[in-house]
Amino acid sequence: MIDRGEILSRMAGHQHWLKIGAVQCDHPGPRPDCRVQSHWPARPNVTTAYPPSSRDGWGIESSQVKDRDDVVDGLENAPPALIGPPQDRNFGKLLIKITWRAPRDKIELYCCPPDRSRMTMFQPSLQIVCYLLARMIGLLFALLLLTFCSLAEEVGEEPIKVTVCQLANDPARYNQMLVQVTGFASYGFENFTINDPSCSSMLGIWLEYGGTAAAGTTYCCGESTARRRPEQLVVEDIPISLVEDERFREFDRLVHRRFDSSVHVTLVGRFFSGRQKKTPNSVFRGGYGHFGCCSLLAIEQVTSVDPQDRDDLDYNTSFDETSIAKRGCGYQSLYRIRAESDLIEAQRKAEQSQSELSFDDPKRVASGHLAQLLKIDEKSVAGIKQTCQAPGRFVYEWRPTGKREGYLIVVSRPSLLSFYAKDPRRVAWIVVAVYRSLCR
Hints:
- The chain is of the alpha+beta class.
- The chain has helices at 4-11, 78-83, 124-155, 164-169, 246-255, 323-326, 340-352, 357-360, 362-374, and strands at residues 22-25, 34-37, 70-73, 94-101, 106-111, 160-161, 178-188, 191-195, 204-209, 234-235, 238-239, 261-272, 275-278, 283-286, 294-305, 330-336, 385-390, 393-398, 405-412, 430-438.
- The protein folds into three domains: 4-155, no CATH class; 160-305, no CATH class; 323-438, no CATH class.
- 22% of the residues lie in helices and 28% in strands.
- The longest helix has 32 residues, at 124-155.
- The termini are far apart.
């Protein structure tokens, strides 16, 4: 171990001061690993100089005495570290280690503050300047971190792109996650859901607006039909925001344009799988929507919405013909499309057929379907009349001669099929409902 008095004696006659404490050698021997440890608090370090003739006598070149650097790991620890040097809380030069990890790279940066070792105890003004400078640098680092955190919060969480089928088949996996999903949003009485006809799962996904907007869906037993709520939507203690831009307003207009509507849309929202429920025949998740039927997608943004600008397509989702009851007649449902997958199958059959009747003649489609349903000759279905017409929909009535009963046939060109047809402009006419009226 190098004697402290010997070190001081070798400094005699020079115009430099050395800050000294205990000199510790971990491995005594010909080349000991020695370090000088400070024990004089609140005093500035000074430059250590060696006369050229005596430099090796200090053990520097022979590695008996080694420089010691303080390395602070992490940008988050920079402010207190930079404030520390003027208070003499470091050994030697202070380095700040900043590590940035990329997928395949690791970059390490060492930020070295201004060298404080050139201050002497006879330069108090320089000490104050360095102290203030260190505090300013520390404050700047702190502001930089706060700004970065604020920007990261504004950028927000990136949504996971999933399909309706993925959400329906494994709802627990995506619980409380921000997702982006494309499907058909259906709106009507006791219904505001998103679906995909290709899904085999029957799990329903209920929709609701985030923020202070409200869909105003009539159902049991949830929110009122009001279009605004007094406070931001909160689901399972998670606040749900909403971007009320032009795309959202167009989507909202389309779903409320008619009694029952279907809109092809891409949504970003927070998904909530709901609680697990059991029935004698199945296990499913629900708790949201009509009688707790469904999981929930709380809408935060509408990223795209398909227009409804074709007057040859039926954008309704309900096929009931309510005019029967208005005539004072009872009715019996003989046929009704039960699933959207049945519509897609009917479109495929029409495309495979050599006949163009399914695309050009809705009246012949109605009479042919009714004859097949009643197991009679199509020629006997004479006198079939059109009673109602709407964009993409016809209603026909047929009354057999000498009988009090009659039949109503609803024929539609569902807008859904434009997304599944070989040619979106070539959608088939399909019978979606047949009723028997029983009038007194």
